[in-house]
Amino acid sequence: MGKTASSKKTAPSAGAGPATAGGRRVYTLGRFFLDRFGFQLHKISLDAGFTCPNRDGKLGSGGCAYCDNRSFAPGTSRAGLAVREQVEREIALAHQRYGASGFIAYFQAYTNTYAPVGTLRRLYDEALAHPQVMGLSIGTRPDCLGDDVLDLIESYARRLHVWLEIGLQSAHDATLKRINRGHDWACFENAMRRASGRGIFLCVHIIHGLPGETDDMMRETVRRVAALSPDGIKIHHLHLIEGTPMTESWKREPFPLLDLERYVSLVADSLEPVSYTH
Questions:
Q1: What region, left, alpha or beta, does residue 180 occupy, with left being phi > 0 and alpha being psi -120 to 50 degrees?
Q2: Rounded to whole angstroms, how far apart are CA atoms 54 and 100?
Q3: Do residues 52 and 114 lie in contact, with contact meaning Cβ atoms separated by under 8 Å?
Q4: Please, are residues 45 and 110 in contact by the beta-carbon 8 Å criterion?
Q5: 10 Cβ neighbours under 8 A, 6+ residues apart
Q6: Fewer CB within 10 A of the terminal residue: the chain, N end or C end?
């Protein structure tokens, strides 16, 4: 869940103003696709079998405190299917449900740049082989974006529509440590600066409602992210998944959770100060 709201390349971000968003206070991804392509593109979620340095022992073994990738697509299973098979299945479903005809292959599960460049190229090419896939969206972490990986993604961006979706969650190092994120703000800022100027659309994921964060801290995260001029920002609502470390911690020592009304208010308050400035 979240808002994808834009600045450069007339793409969606927290910084959309009248010149880039037709006067809209928030420029949604759906509106951006309509403006850019003349029809709605659909993102099809893929699980390419990646893991995460916060799970495989490189940084840690428990993962982020809130994370359970099964919650991203409840009721579906892509395990064991090749990328090509997943693409074909998801496109067939989207045809049936929405009459969709254009697609973005969304490498979503875990960290989708966490492999050798040759492996990444093979997997991305497999998704792009379907004639109706018009581009890529690649979910990852800031500490898995070496220059060789960015060079590869840039090579696709020269000829296709490519988004890089970078998980940050919070701009506050104390929070990142608390949720066992495995990187800090400086790592994220460095990754953003190295990824900028390559023709890649950059979307930043954050979470409102993380334990220990005040409203001011959540608003500050959006301000600091907007200052880096991303093309989009996705503001997730924290939800607790059974079996995750954060849920077990909450059972022992409950912390306040955001209801819908407060979440919506926080999103609006977070975006308003930057909506005409970037």
A1: left
A2: 36
A3: yes
A4: no
A5: 20, 32, 35, 36
A6: N
